[in-house]
Structures are given as C-alpha cells and as structure tokens.
C-alpha cells in the first residue's frame, strides 16, 4: 500500500479511487477483528456468534470489493490523507456497529454507532443501561453477552493502535495542529525519512503497546476478583485510555486497592508518548526521563493528586491511604482521558470536584493513546503567554519560545494557539446543542468536553454513574462527531468541511 | 502633568516619585467626587453627609500631600505607566471605600473595598442585602441612604470615563493585548501624534459620554416610575456598563417596557467604541456604519436576541413582545457586561440560559465602557482560525489575517491569542479559588467570569437575585483582584507581577 507522500504540495483534484481503495482495505481487515468476539461466544456458549460472523462477512465482502475495484495505483497525497483518516474512523464505526444491530443488543442504528464510535475513539461513553428518548430500554452492561463486552474493549484497543500510528507517523506529515512538533519532540524518525517506513515504525510502537497490555493483563488476572476475561477487557480499555468496563459500576465493582493501583499505573503509562516508551525499552533511560512533556505531565498529575487526595482526606474524612487511592485513580483517569471510575466524583467536596473539572481540559502526552488538548500544547500555550508578558516589558527584544533546548517556531506557536481556540469553539458549540435538549449548563458542558476530549463520563445528567442513552438522537450524533473531531486532532476532520479543501 | 512618553524603550529603573506624584493628583481629584454625595444627603436630609466630607478631606489632604512631595518632574515612561494605571484603580477604591466604613453602611473594610472596586471597574457586583461569612447582616440596597446609592453609581460613571481614556489613549501606547489595533481601528489620532493630546482626546470623548448620559437621564426621567434621582443613577450605571441599581430587584423593579427598551438601547450604545460615536456626532455616518467591529457586535447581539427571545416565546410561553423585551434586555445587558436584570435568567429554559452563559465570554467593543474579551479580539481569533485551516490545505501559501481592509500583523495576532489564553487561565484559577469555599462548579465559574468580565451577576449562589455578601474574605479579595485585572485588560496588571518588569 502506498503511503502518504513526503511532498506536501497539494495538486489540483482529489483521487477518490485512492481514498476508496485504502478504506476498502481497512474495512476488509475489520472483518478479522469482528471474528474474534465470535470465539468468545463459542467459549461461553452464547448464540450471538452469528451476528459477528455476518458482520465479518459484510466487512470482507464490502471491503474486499472496494479494494479490488479501486486498488490504489497512485501514491497518497496530503488531501487524500485527510479524507482517509476521517473516513476510516467513520466507516469502521458503521461496520463495527453491525453486530449490535443484527443481534438486537442495540437495535437503534444511532445507539449502535454511538457505542462503536465511542469504542474506536477510545472515549468510553456508553448508551447501555438507560432508556432512550424514544422509550426503548437498552440492556444493562452486565446483561449483554460477553462477546459484546469484548467487542467494546477490542474497539478501544484497535482505536488506540490507530491513534499511536496516526499521531506519531501520519499527522506530522499532514502538518496538523503542532503535530510536526510532536514528531520533532519524539525520538522517532524525521518526516522525510519516515515515509517509506510508516509500517515499520507502526510495528515497533505496537510491540510496546502489546507488551504493556499483556503485562497489565497478567497483573490483573492474578487477582482473585478478576477472571481472565475481565482482565483482558480492562487491560484493553486501560492501554487505549478507553474506559469501557465489563461492570456498570466500572472499576469500583472489583473493590480492590491492588486492582485500582495497577490500573492507575497503566493509565499513567498509556498517557505517555509511545515513542518514548520504545526508547526506554531499548534502554535509553536518560532520554525518557529528560523528556520535558513527560515531566510536565507528571507534574500536573502530581499536583492533581495532592489537591484531590488532600481534599478527600481533610473534607470527606477518607483515610490517608483511601484518599490517595481514590484521588490518584480519578486524577490519572481524567488527565489521561481514560474515564474509568472508582468513586463518584460528583459527590466529593467542591474543591476536589472542581479541580477534577479543570483536569477535563488537560489530556495526555502527544503520541500516547490519551485524548484532550494534550500536555505539549499546554506547555507551548504557557510559555507563549510568559513570553508575551516579557515582550511588553521589553518591546524591542526578540524572545523565542523554548521547550527544553528546542526553539518552537512561530508557525507551530500559531498552530497550537489556533488548535486551542478551535477546541474551545467546538466544545462550546457542542455544549450549546446539548443544552437545546433541556439539559442544564453543567450537564451540557460535561457531555461536550467528555466527548471532544475522549474522556467518557461527564457531569450532571451525564456523570460517572449515568449514561448517554436518554439523549435525543440529534444530540447523540453531535457527540459522535465531537468524539471523532477530538480524537483526530480537530483539524484533520475540520479541513474537510472547508471550501479551500475542495477548491481546485 | 507629563503624559506617557511616545518612546516605548524602557530604561533601567522605575521613578517611583513620578508614580506617587500622579497618584496623588488622582486621589486629590477623588476628593471632589466624594463631595457630591454629601449634596444628595443635604437634599434628602440625611446625616451621613459627614462621612463623605471627612473622606473628601482625607483625599484632599493625602492626595495633595503626595502631589506636593513628589510633583513629577520627569516624563512618564512605559513602566511607570503600568504602575500608575493599576495603582490608580486600587488606591481610588481604597479612598472611595472610606464613606462606607465611616458611616457604618459597610463597616467591613473588605466589603467596603469590594463595593467600591465593583463600582470603579463598572462591574456592579454587590455585597449589599446579604449576610457575611462572619455573620454580619449588610443592609439591603433600598435601606441605605440615597447618598450611598449615588456614590455607587458615580463610581461606575467615573470608572467608565477612566476606561474610555485608558483604552483609546493610554493602553495603545503601552502596547497592551492588541490595543495597538484598537487604536488603529478607531479613527482617533495615531500613537505618535496622540501623546501631547491625551487630555484633548479625553475631553472630546467625555463630551460624547456626558451627552449620552444626559439624554438617557431625560428619557428615563419623563417616565412616571422614575424620579430624577433614579433616572440619574440608572443613566450613570448604563453608560458605564456598570449595573448597580437603586433597587434590589434591579431594573425589574420599575416593571416598564418603556424603561426596559430605553436602557436596552443605551446599554447597546455604551458597548460601542466611543471614538466611533464621536465621529458620528461629527457627522461621519459612513465610517460609523462601515466599522467591522460594530457590525460584528451587532450581529452577535442580533443572534443572541433571536435565540434567547424565541426560546422564551416557544418554551416559556412569553408573548412575542415580552419575549423580545426580556430577551433583548438580558442579551444586551450581558454582552455589554452591564449586568442589569429584568428577569431571573436562571429560571429560563435551558437553551436561553445556556446561550446567555456563552455570552458571558463575549464583551463589548474596544474603546467602549464594556468589559470582557471584546469583539475585536473574537474577530481576530476567528479569522486566525479560518486562516489556519486554509494554511493546512495550502501549506506554502502566505495567508494574511484581515479585518476589512486592514491586515493584522503577526505581532497583534499573537498578542490577542495570548490575551485570550491568559484570560481563560486567570478565569479558571479564580473559579478554582472560589470553589475552595464550598461553592459548586457553576457558582464558582459564574463568580469568576462575572468578576473578570466586569459583568456583575453570575450563576448559582451568585445569580442575578443573589449577592456576594456570603463569600469569605479571601474570596472577596480574589474577586476584587479579578475585577481589576479584567478591567485593565489583564496585561497591565499582570506584568507588574513579572520578574522581568522589576529587573534592571
Ligand atoms: K476515554
Ligand atoms: K457590569
């Protein structure tokens, strides 16, 4: 398969055959993913295996046909790249929704796509366990066949794989929202060298991802409260910073400090640049610990734990150990945009709850599976602001913005600032649309930031003990779009809607 | 008095004598302002006149002494300019708080300063009518002597005068947050020509301000529900976009569609660049209506009225006329940051309430008395974002950002972006500190944005029918600081806290 061209000059028209051909290949491969839950069905003796096999058949047939018809002969250029990335998440969500519809687990088309997009974007918002606006009662998480629990977790895990490659290998080539920098920051190969090696890079990074998932699986499995099935699912959902659980009460259901701490540590790891992990695996400890973004990420989490845990200890009278356990879990869960819960943060004291609310606007490191605005962007925003203040005092000085030794170009500064503003715009617009359905301000804000930040649970009517079933259909589609826009770093999706993109 | 130097190169050290001398002059003139409420006392036969006369005496004595001791011999340079601007609002708030303390109307030092700073920054948040955290019951607005009602309104009106001159004549020279642009946009004299003419410019703009205030006073006075005293106070509070009323129920107390519409129109006018008004007065209609910021401001208000009024009409079953009246009043009141109320917006439907919540983040035009982020900055933020999307499609093109015919320099773009980010930072920090006192998320957010945006009323515990009396002392000081920081365009105050400012 031809990969993104290293020459970013756009030519006149878009080769739709290239786009459709590559999409066909992805849909075809989705067929294999769809077969695995059928195995779970056979293991547990459930008769829903047919819905996965039929869906896989559709994926093989449809994807194979597309690939065969449009087999790409030309190389992929920058515009086709944008279309492919956006349409991949969209079309795989449609294909991945099929088993939900065919089996009748989620008969509503909207709900099935919502759940699958929430999986593939590693968001983890669910419509299970609630009543829809049309009065249909969706089954509870514990009541659906295990194969569907596995399918949700697998969607997370595959989505996480996609995001690692996207953010470290593809988006930097497309010049998205400061992603050029993430690449420069990360120790991976540079843009022009990477082109013929996207697949090779992908394999190395996936190796790290698979290894972490396997280690977490083992660590969870050894605990008596978790069987192998629950351990796999939670390992998938952790490493993808997804947040779907096999329990309605999320990780709280296992009620184990050991499990909480294991998941806390692996959520933290999932929020770190995977290129850095790769370097550490190779033995380059110095580069790992010297990384500025990792330090900043750790600092934010440290401050979050200090504030939240001490508020739980002092105000809510938790023991010190419990305050640390619940505080650390929830802070890491939100900063990394995982969205697992062990405690209903809406019932906390106002300080802890508010600080957590602020953390909804942070996000993991670039090149991790974490969503949100991301640490490197916050660092650039902060440095830029400090520079601006100095500039007023010294109007004629030339003051560069630096992260460590690296000077951040004017171009990247501007791109990051624009990203932030677009993020806030889209978040506010999303929240406004949710408010149209009668939700209060906090619930509307919470639903929107939980979707665009790929976090999962929000606030108010969409808090950690609630679900998104009751939201009217239009509202669900708005959140589906927000999840996708957030996961694909805003610009990737947005430029497709710009007239300039389509102009010859 | 020597004015801001046109040479913005900072020299080594700060001449504190210059700063103290100018401050002394301002404090001295505050003495005259303090004498006017004493006249109201004499008219209405209240014995609180002595507290104003004593305060005026202190202002004359203290200010006069400072002026005499430090009579500035040198010209004012950029750093002294920052100190003078920030310290003027602070010291006049301290002096203006004296009558409240001396009379015992607000015996708490914090409350007296809060009320005065809220007045001088045209914020309009009040501590009257509530019980403080120490259990003291502050009097209701209707129960304090009329002289104090007048003093609150007069503080607004003088604060508004200060802001017009500051934003159109002084801040552009200091290079604050894109203020260079406002000046370029406004038809006033350019930076280098202005220096010797600040006083002349001030007089012309104040003429417009006084004229509008007088016309509004007359239009309100002719209505039977308002006597001359109420008409003056509301005209002062409207033109300053202040929002203090003589009634606890704000403008709702007069229950008149005529009064509502008069105030709506004058709030709208108060949110327009006064340099534009000046041009219109001189007969230059074309320049007035061609102004891009004015058009954008009108568009935002129009959309706001359409959304809010139709939600009131359809969902809350208001008549069309009532929906327009209450919707238009509240939208204009919030966009211009006046904060008057005729309806408790927290009881509205979720759509109307949420849209109003979004409008808390807009603000008036530059060079108006309105607070907030301001329209010109939003325009630059939006244009910049659109440009950024085009840039990704055409990576090698050079795409300028334009407002009308004017190209916005990279420098101003960056400054405006930094302003926005700092605004959001400080707002979020303020909200977090308020949450420390046990307030919920919406109340904390509302208090912070109402203070930094100089709006007045917020949400939840600080909604339009509540007050700020119950907030603990530290919280009140945080809001005092936020009002000042917001009113002085963030950077003016913030750079004083930067090490670079004090370094030789
Ligand atoms: K998530
Ligand atoms: K106000």
Automatic annotation (TrEMBL), chains A, B:
- What are the transmembrane regions? 12-40, 52-70, 82-102, 157-182, 203-222, 258-276, 296-315, 351-373, 416-439, 477-502
Membrane topology of the entry: Multi-pass membrane protein
GO (cellular component) term, any one: plasma membrane
- A Pfam family of the record is TrkH
Q: Where in the cell is it found?
A: Cell inner membrane
UniProt cross-references to InterPro entries, sorted A to Z: Cat_transpt (IPR003445), TrkH (IPR004772)
Question: At which positions is K(+) bound?
Answer: 122-123, 242, 338, 454
Listed GO MF terms: metal ion binding; potassium:chloride symporter activity
Q: Which of UniProt's keywords are assigned here?
A: Cell inner membrane, Cell membrane, Ion transport, Membrane, Metal-binding, Potassium, Potassium transport, Transmembrane, Transmembrane helix, Transport
The record's comment on protein family reads: Belongs to the TrkH potassium transport family.
**Can you say what this protein is called?**
Trk system potassium uptake protein TrkH
């Amino acid at each position: 398969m031809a990969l993104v061209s290293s020459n970013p000059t756009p030519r006149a028209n878009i080769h739709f055959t290239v786009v459709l051909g590559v999409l066909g290949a992805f849909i075809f491969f989705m067929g294999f993913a769809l077969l695995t839950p059928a195995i779970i069905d056979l293991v547990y003796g459930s008769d829903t295996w047919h819905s996965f096999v039929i869906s896989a058949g559709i994926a093989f047939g449809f994807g194979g046909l597309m690939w065969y018809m449009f087999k790409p002969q030309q190389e992929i250029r920058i515009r086709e790249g944008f279309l492919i990335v956006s349409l991949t998440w969209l079309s795989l969500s449609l294909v991945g929704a099929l088993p939900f519809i065919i089996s009748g687990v989620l008969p509503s088309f909207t709900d099935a796509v919502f759940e699958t997009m929430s999986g593939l974007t590693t968001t983890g918002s669910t419509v299970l366990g609630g009543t829809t606006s049309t009065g249909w009662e969706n089954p509870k998480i514990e009541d659906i066949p295990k194969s569907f629990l596995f399918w949700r977790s697998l969607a997370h895990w595959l989505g996480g794989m996609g995001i690692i490659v996207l953010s470290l290998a593809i988006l930097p080539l497309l010049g998205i929202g400061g992603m050029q920098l993430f690449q420069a920051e990360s120790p991976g190969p540079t843009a022009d060298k990477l082109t013929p090696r996207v697949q090779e890079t992908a394999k190395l990074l996936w190796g790290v991802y698979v290894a972490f998932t396997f280690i977490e699986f083992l660590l969870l499995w050894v605990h008596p409260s978790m069987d192998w099935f629950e351990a796999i699912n939670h390992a998938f959902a952790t490493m993808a910073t997804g947040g779907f659980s096999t329990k309605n009460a999320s990780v709280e259901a296992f009620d184990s400090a050991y499990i909480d701490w294991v998941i806390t540590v692996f959520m933290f790891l999932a929020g770190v640049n995977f290129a850095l992990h790769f370097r550490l695996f190779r033995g380059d400890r110095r580069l790992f610990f010297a990384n500025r973004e990792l330090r900043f990420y750790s600092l934010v989490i440290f401050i979050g734990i200090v504030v939240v845990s001490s508020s739980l200890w002092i105000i809510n009278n938790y023991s010190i150990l419990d305050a640390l356990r619940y505080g650390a879990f929830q802070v890491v869960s939100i900063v990394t945009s995982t969205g697992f819960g062990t405690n209903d943060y809406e019932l906390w004291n106002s300080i802890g709850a508010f600080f957590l609310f602020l953390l909804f606007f942070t996000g993991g490191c670039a090149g991790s599976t974490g969503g949100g605005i991301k640490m490197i962007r916050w660092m650039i925003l902060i440095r830029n602001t400090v520079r601006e203040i100095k500039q007023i005092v010294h109007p004629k000085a030339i003051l560069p913005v630096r992260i460590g030794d690296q000077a951040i170009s004017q171009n990247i500064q501007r791109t990051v600032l624009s990203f932030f503003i677009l993020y806030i715009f889209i978040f506010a617009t999303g929240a406004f649309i949710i408010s149209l359905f009668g939700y209060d301000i906090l619930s509307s804000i919470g639903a929107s930031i939980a979707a665009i930040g790929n976090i999962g649970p929000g606030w108010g009517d969409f808090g950690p003990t609630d679900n998104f079933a009751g939201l009217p259909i239009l509202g669900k589609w708005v959140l589906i779009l927000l999840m996708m826009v957030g996961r694909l770093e805003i610009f990737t999706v947005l430029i497709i809607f710009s007239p300039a993109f389509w102009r010859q």
